[in-house]
């Protein structure tokens, strides 16, 4: 058994964290490694480079969702595959990267990400700009941040991620209701809650 | 009470996020046990290189290679920053 630790994300160290989710490579042993005010959510893995199987990809997301929703913690999500060679390198990063992690956690404090897509029926004529503008006008007051994602299909009219405070969730759901009712010809895809993947754009480089 | 609540997400939505987004930590920073100097980069822009890190990264790389291949003689080429221990005569005073 190696000492390798798969890291899911970084959260404030607010005491013990119970995570009821299966981790990467089927681990039932999700725990935290703390240093100072920060804790990394981890589980043991053998491989430094775990396979990107559907199960592993889902497990990464499931663990973060459990931390965020069940434990109501703010979490800076890691990209898939961040395996550390034991506790020491991980604590090293928590120590040296502390200003970065703390700032990121501060930016996203008490929030999570919700995804909003509006898809037009085949051949439908839609005033895309008008729809996008109205949707954002309705959702901006009940959110604290937004990122417009790639419109990878002609039928995709809106593809945005919103950063929403936990306490504003009901208001956001209601705004989504209004949008759903306003556009019969558009199919709404409302997803999440996600860890704020689209609102943490930081890399710790080693060049 | 709102009728819309977010759905359990499709695998495509999960993939789109966790393979492309989220915090990235360079592999050398994830394996190093020495007091490395790290470089935090916002918006995935590489700003500058840190000579100190390159030095450590090379050393770590060599340790990794050596331990993986079992060719520990590679380790002789390492600059560890600590010179070889000079043999010293130990004087024992008899009292």
From TrEMBL, chain A:
Keyword Ribonucleoprotein applies: no
Q: Where in the cell is it found?
A: Gas vesicle
Major place of residence: other
Is Iron-sulfur set as a keyword in this record?
A: no
Gene Ontology CC terms, in alphabetical order: gas vesicle
Q: Which InterPro entries match?
A: GvpL/GvpF (IPR009430)
Look up and give the organism this protein is from.
Halomarina rubra
Q: Which UniProt keywords apply?
A: Gas vesicle
Name of the featured protein: GvpL/GvpF family gas vesicle protein
Taxonomic path: Archaea, Methanobacteriati, Methanobacteriota, Stenosarchaea group, Halobacteria
Q: Which family does it belong to?
A: Belongs to the gas vesicle GvpF/GvpL family.
TrEMBL record, chain B:
Instruction: Tell me which Pfam families the record gives.
Output: Gas_vesicle
Query: HAMAP family attached here?
Result: Gas_vesicle_A
Identify this protein by name: Gas vesicle protein A
InterPro entries (UniProt xref): Gas-vesicle_GvpA-like, Gas_vesicle_GvpA, GvpA, GvpA-like_CS
Principal subcellular localization: other
Q: Which family does it belong to?
A: Belongs to the gas vesicle GvpA family.
In terms of PROSITE patterns, this protein maps to:
GAS_VESICLE_A_1 (PS00234), GAS_VESICLE_A_2 (PS00669)
Q: So what does this one do? A: Gas vesicles are hollow, gas filled proteinaceous nanostructures found in some microorganisms. During planktonic growth they allow positioning of the organism at a favorable depth for light or nutrient acquisition. GvpA forms the protein shell.
Q: Does the keyword Isomerase apply?
A: no
Q: Which NCBIfam families match?
A: halo_gas_GvpA, PRK09371.1
Species in which this protein is naturally found: Halomarina rubra
Assembly and partners are described as: The gas vesicle shell is 2 nm thick and consists of a single layer of this protein. It forms helical ribs nearly perpendicular to the long axis of the vesicle.
């Amino acid at each position: 058994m190696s000492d390798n630790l798969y890291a899911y994300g970084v959260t404030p160290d607010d005491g013990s964290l119970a995570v009821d989710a299966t981790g990467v490579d089927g681990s039932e042993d999700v725990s935290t490694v703390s240093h100072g005010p920060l804790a990394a959510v981890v589980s043991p893995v053998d491989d430094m480079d775990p396979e990107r199987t559907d199960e592993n990809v889902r497990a990464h997301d499931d663990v973060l969702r459990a931390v965020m929703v069940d434990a109501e913690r703010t979490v800076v999500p890691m990209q898939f595959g961040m395996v550390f060679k034991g506790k020491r390198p991980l604590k090293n990063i928590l120590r040296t990267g502390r200003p970065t992690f703390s700032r990121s956690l501060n930016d996203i404090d008490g929030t999570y990400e919700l995804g909003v897509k509006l898809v037009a029926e085949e051949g439908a004529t839609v005033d895309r700009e008008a729809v996008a503008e109205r949707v954002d006008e309705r959702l901006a007051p009940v959110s604290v941040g937004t990122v417009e994602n790639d419109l990878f299909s002609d039928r995709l009219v809106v593809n945005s991620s919103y950063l929403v405070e936990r306490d504003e969730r009901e208001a956001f759901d209601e705004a989504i209701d209004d949008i759903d009712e306003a556009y019969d010809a558009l199919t709404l895809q409302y997803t999440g809650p996600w860890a704020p993947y689209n609102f943490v754009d930081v890399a710790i480089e080693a060049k | 009470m709102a009728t819309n609540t977010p759905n359990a997400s499709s695998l495509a939505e999960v993939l789109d996020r966790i393979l492309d987004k989220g915090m990235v930590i360079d592999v050398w920073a994830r394996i190093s046990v020495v007091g490395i100097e790290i470089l935090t980069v916002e918006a995935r822009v590489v700003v500058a290189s840190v000579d100190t890190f390159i030095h450590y990264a090379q050393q770590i790389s060599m340790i990794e290679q050596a331990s993986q291949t079992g060719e520990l003689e590679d380790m002789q080429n390492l600059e560890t920053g600590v010179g070889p221990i000079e043999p010293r005569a130990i004087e024992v005073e008899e009292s």
